[in-house]
Amino acid sequence: MFHRSQRLLLRPPWPEDWCEILGGIADEGVVRNLARAPWPYRPHHAREFVASPAAPRFPRFVVARADNAAMVGCVGIDQVGNTAELGYWIARPYWGRGYATEAGRAALEIARMLGHSRIVASHFLDNPASGRVLQKLGFAATGAIRPRFSCGRGGEALAAEYALDLECECEPDMRAA
Fold first, then answer.
1. Choosing a second label site near 40 at 20 to 30 A (CA), which of 18, 48, 122, 149?
2. Quick check: helix, strand or coil at residue 7?
3. pLDDT at residue 83 tops 80
4. In angstroms, rounded to a whole number, what is the distance separating the alpha carbons of residues 100 and 33?
């Protein structure tokens, strides 16, 4: 599955992407904000990521710039129990350019198309920028702040939880990308 937004192309990860993925995510400042990626992130982790199959209703994508195909990160819809969860990372050189919001918006369009009615997300409290991205996407804080394990941190850290009703016809705040 492929999806084109204004500036980005979302596509499945291909085996030859492992090196670019490694180059973007092998940064402690990126990995520490993720729950499932280990630190240090090694070449075999990137190879395993691109080789692992994704379930049809829970796709994951390489996020690339549409104008020059430069990889800026990854976004996906993960299955956590009976719930769909949005997850993403953006490589440090691309922070602050609105790519996380644009990629997240595209992933939510795909989630709706796949029939998901609700999606959750969270961010570690020491990563408020991710919370701002979730709010721009229309997520509402649930009020729950819980410890969540982070492979990259090697332990638990407090995370704020969010949810979004995908059946609502409400538009997220489009003022900031």
1. 122
2. coil
3. yes
4. 13
Average pLDDT, the chain: 94
What residues contact 150, with CB distance under 8 A and at least 6 apart? 32, 34, 35, 124, 156, 157
* Residue 22 in tokens: 């490694």
Q: Are 163 and 141 in contact (CB under 8 A)?
A: no
Strands 140-150 and 155-165: antiparallel
List, edge to edge, every strand of the sheet that includes 155-165.
3-4, 8-11, 60-65, 71-80, 83-90, 118-124, 155-165, 140-150
Task: For residue 22, give Cα distances in angstroms to 41, 74, 109, 127, 155.
Answer: 7, 11, 27, 21, 22
Q: How many residues does the chain have?
A: 177
Give the residue carrying structure tokens 């721009």.
Answer: 136
**Contacts of residue 129, Cβ cutoff 8 Å, sequence gap at least 6:** 95
Q: Compute CA distances 159 → 33, 49, 90, 109, 121, whole Å.
A: 10, 24, 19, 25, 10
Q: Which two tokens stand for residue 48?
A: 């395993």
CATH 3.30.9.100 fits 3-165, yes or no: no
142-154 burial, b for 16+ CB within 10 Å, e for fewer? eeeeeebebbbbe
| Spatial contact of 125 and 158, defined as CB atoms under 8 Å apart | yes
Per-residue pLDDT band at 116 (split at 50, 70, 90): very high
